[in-house]
Design goal:
The structure holds 2 protein chains of 2 kinds. By secondary structure, chain A is α+β, with helices and mostly antiparallel strands. Chain A is 27% helix and 23% strand. Chain B is an alpha+beta fold. Chain B is globular, with a radius of gyration of 18 Å. The chains are: A alpha+beta, B alpha+beta. Chain A: This is Rieske 2Fe-2S domain-containing protein. Chain A: Belongs to the bacterial ring-hydroxylating dioxygenase alpha subunit family.
Chain lengths: 446, 192
C-alpha cells in the first residue's frame, strides 16, 4: 500500500530536494488508547498532528469528491478540496470523470475559481497558462521565451491518479497504488447500499450544496457520524420535540431505541436503530416508500436497520444520513476549523413532489438552519474551545461506552456493537493511528 | 418602469415609489419587526407574516461571469430557508421546548434594516396583489454575538411583497439574499 511509486503526472523537480525537517513526524501511539477507551485531546488541537494528517491520512486515503449526477456533458466541472488541496473534478471529452489539482503549474494560482459550471478550458488569470479538460497545457503566452527543453507535456495540471465511483459517489486518492475503492469500503458498502441502492437507477442530487464553517476539528464531526447515536436524545431534544405531535413529548420508543452500530476495520462506522416498523421521517416520503419492494431488494435486515434513521462515516471525512438523504464532507481547515459541504440525494425514480418533500424536510432539519443541526454546531465549537486550555488538553476524553461489546451479530455484516456505543469511534481512531504512524506513498523509505 | 394609465378614472400607481408617509410606515414596520426578532419574540413576529407567506433564502454560488445568471440557487435548489408560515411556526416551536441548546444561553442579535426602497406593486407582475400592496427592497446587517466572544455578521438584501390589510401591513413574500458563499457561521439560529 505504501510503495513509493511516482504519481501519474510527471512533475519535474530538477535539483530541488525537500529537506526532511520541513515535515515533522510524531509517533501518535500514545494519543489513542483503544483498549482503555481513552483519547488525548491533542488530536484536536496540535498543529504538528494536523500537518501530519494532511500527509498521512488525507494524501493516501480515498476522499469523496462529488456525485456523478453533477456531470452530464464534457466540460461540466465542480471545484472542491482534498484535505486542504483545491481540486477540479470534470468530465473530459471522452466523458470520463477526472480530477486535477486546481493550481497552475506556473505560479500556483487556482485555474478555476467558480464553484461549478461548464467550460472548455481552465485558464489561469495570472499569466494566462491554459489547460484543457484532459489537464494538458494548451496555451502559454510568450511561449518563445522558454528554453528549447521546455516541454508542455510535463506542465499539465497534476492529475488525481485514481478516481473511482461507488453507486454514484465519486472518490479520488493521491495514492498511486491504492487498495481499490470497493475493497477499502469492505462491509461498509452493505450499509451504504441501504441508502444508495433503493432503485436500480441509483440516486440523483437535488438542489445543490449547503456550505458552512464550523469551529471544530474535522474529526469531531467525522467521529460523531461514525459512532454517536448517544447524543441524539440530549443534543436534539428540541428537534425531537417538534417532530412529535404538537403538545406531546417524543414517544418512548423514539427515546429508548435499540439498534446496532457497525464497527468497520478501516475506520468506517454506522449506527442505526433496529425496528420492524422503521420509517422515513418525512410523511410524504414515508407514504411513497414501498417498504415491501425494498425488503425484496435489500433484505429485511437493511430495511429494519440502516435504511432510514441512522448515521455513518466513510473514513476519513465523508458522512451521511439515510433518513433525509444528506451526504456531506467535512473539509479540514486547520486543527480548529472545518467547512461542511452537504448535498441532498434522492432515488432517481422519486417523483418530483416526493423529491421536493425530502429536500424541504432535509433543509428544515439538517444543514446550518436545520432544527437538528443548529445544535451540532454548538457542540463542536464547545468541545474545540475547551480543548485549547493547558489542563483541559491534558485530560483524556472518555470513549468507553460498549467497551468489549463488539461482536458478529449474525444479521449485519462485519463487527457490530450496541447502538449506544463508542466502538466505531474507537475503531475510527485506531485506523487514524495506524495511518498516522505509517509512512505514506510520497515519503522516502529507509 | 411603470406606465401611468387611467383605470376607472384613477391614475395607476403600479411600480411608482411610495410617498413619504407610506415610506415612513414601511420603515416603522421593519423596525418593529427587527425589534421583535432581537427580543426573541418569535410568536409575535409570526403575527407580522401573512398566512400564505413564501419565505425564501437561497444559497449563492460562485459562477463564471458568463454563467452569472445562475449564481443564485433556483427555486427547488439549496436554500437556508424555504418556508411557509406553518414551517416557520414549527421551527419556532423548538425555541419553546426549553432545550434548544444552540440558543441557550441566547445570543445577542441586532437586526439593522436600511436602504429601503418601496414601490406600489404592479399586479401584472405579482398576481393576487393590488397596487395597495408594496414591493420593497431593503438591506440588512444582522450582528450576532454569542457566549463570550463569538461574533457573526450576516449582511444581505431582502425583496418583500407587503400586503395591505385592515390590520396594517403583513409580509406575504420575502426573498433573502445573504452576501456569502460559504456561510461564515456555525449555524443560522435567527430569522431575517
Amino acid at each position: 500500500m505504501s510503495s513509493s511509486t511516482e504519481p501519474a503526472t510527471v512533475t519535474p523537480r530538477g535539483a530541488l530536494r525537500r529537506p526532511a525537517e520541513l515535515a515533522r513526524t510524531v509517533d501518535v501511539s500514545g494519543l489513542v488508547d483503544t483498549e482503555g477507551g481513552l483519547l488525548d485531546r491533542a488530536v484536536f488541537t496540535d498543529e504538528t498532528v494536523y500537518r501530519q494528517e494532511m500527509r498521512r491520512v488525507f494524501a493516501p486515503s480515498w476522499l469523496f469528491l462529488a456525485h456523478t449526477d453533477q456531470f452530464h456533458r464534457p466540460g461540466d466541472f465542480f471545484t472542491t478540496w482534498m484535505g486542504e488541496d483545491p481540486v477540479i473534478v470534470t468530465m473530459d471529452r471522452n466523458r470520463r470523470i477526472r480530477a486535477y489539482l486546481n493550481s497552475c503549474r506556473h505560479r500556483g494560482a487556482r485555474v478555476c475559481r467558480a464553484d461549478f459550471g461548464t467550460t472548455r478550458n481552465f485558464t489561469c488569470t495570472y499569466h494566462g497558462w491554459s489547460f484543457n479538460l484532459e489537464g494538458g497545457l494548451v496555451s502559454v503566452p510568450n511561449r518563445e521565451g522558454y528554453p528549447d527543453s521546455f516541454d508542455t507535456g510535463q506542465w499539465g495540471l497534476v492529475e488525481v491518479p485514481h478516481v473511482e465511483t461507488y453507486r454514484g459517489l465519486i472518490f479520488g486518492t493521491w495514492n498511486p497504488a491504492p487498495v481499490p475503492l470497493r475493497e477499502s469500503l469492505g462491509d461498509m458498502a452493505w450499509y451504504m447500499d441501504a441508502m444508495l441502492d433503493h432503485d436500480e437507477k441509483g440516486t440523483v442530487v437535488v438542489g445543490g450544496i449547503h456550505k458552512w464553517m464550523l469551529e471544530g476539528n474535522w474529526k469531531l464531526a467525522a467521529e460523531q457520524f461514525a459512532t454517536d447515536w448517544y447524543h441524539v436524545n440530549m443534543s436534539h431534544a428540541s428537534a425531537l420535540m417538534v417532530l412529535a405531535p404538537a403538545g406531546k413529548k417524543p414517544k418512548q420508543e423514539i427515546v429508548h431505541r435499540a439498534g446496532r452500530q457497525y464497527v468497520g476495520a478501516n475506520g468506517h462506522g454506522a449506527g442505526f436503530p433496529v425496528h420492524p416498523k422503521n420509517r422515513f421521517d418525512d410523511g410524504t416520503v414515508h407514504e411513497w416508500t414501498d417498504y415491501d419492494a425494498l425488503r425484496e431488494r435489500l433484505g429485511d435486515a437493511r430495511v429494519e436497520g440502516p435504511l432510514t434513521n441512522g448515521h455513518a462515516t466513510v473514513f476519513p471525512n465523508f458522512s451521511y444520513l439515510p433518513v433525509n438523504g444528506s451526504i456531506r464532507i467535512w473539509h479540514p481547515k486547520g486543527p480548529d476549523r472545518m467547512e461542511v459541504w452537504a448535498w441532498t440525494i434522492v432515488d432517481a425514480s422519486m417523483p418530483e413532489e416526493i423529491r421536493e418533500a425530502q429536500r424541504l424536510y432535509n433543509l428544515r432539519t439538517f444543514g446550518p438552519s436545520g432544527v437538528f443541526e443548529q445544535d451540532d454546531g454548538e457542540n463542536w465549537s464547545e468541545v474545540q474551545g475547551t480543548a485549547g486550555g493547558f489542563m483541559a488538553n491534558r485530560v483524556a476524553l472518555n470513549y468507553q461506552m460498549g467497551l468489549g461489546g463488539e461482536r458478529e451479530d449474525g444479521r449485519h455484516p462485519g463487527t457490530t456493537s450496541e447502538l449506544y456505543s463508542d466502538a466505531a469511534g474507537r475503531s475510527f481512531y485506531a485506523h487514524w493511528r495506524t495511518l498516522m504512524n505509517t509512512p505514506a506513498w510520497h515519503e522516502e523509505h529507509a | 418602469m411603470s406606465i401611468t394609465t387611467s383605470v376607472n378614472g384613477r391614475r395607476s400607481r403600479a411600480g411608482l415609489l411610495a410617498d413619504r408617509d407610506l415610506h415612513f410606515e414601511v420603515e416603522q414596520f421593519y423596525f418593529r419587526e427587527a425589534e421583535l426578532l432581537d427580543d426573541g419574540r418569535y410568536a409575535d413576529w409570526l403575527d407580522l407574516l401573512a398566512d400564505d407567506l413564501d419565505y425564501w433564502m437561497p444559497t449563492r454560488t460562485n459562477r463564471l461571469r458568463r454563467q452569472q445568471a445562475f449564481a443564485v440557487a433556483a427555486r427547488g435548489e439549496a436554500a437556508f430557508y424555504d418556508e411557509t408560515k406553518e414551517s416557520l411556526a414549527w421551527r419556532i416551536r423548538r425555541f419553546d421546548s426549553g432545550m434548544a441548546w444552540a440558543e441557550d444561553p441566547p445570543s445577542r442579535t441586532r437586526h439593522l434594516i436600511t436602504n429601503v426602497v418601496a414601490r406600489h406593486v404592479d399586479p401584472g407582475e405579482h398576481s393576487g396583489f393590488t397596487e395597495d400592496d408594496l414591493l420593497v427592497k431593503s438591506a440588512f446587517l444582522v450582528y450576532r454575538n454569542r457566549l463570550e466572544r463569538e461574533e457573526n455578521v450576516f449582511a444581505g438584501g431582502r425583496t418583500d411583497v407587503l400586503r395591505r390589510t385592515p390590520d396594517g401591513l403583513l409580509v406575504a413574500r420575502r426573498t433573502i439574499l445573504l452576501d456569502q458563499n460559504v456561510l461564515m457561521s456555525k449555524n443560522i439560529s435567527t430569522f431575517f
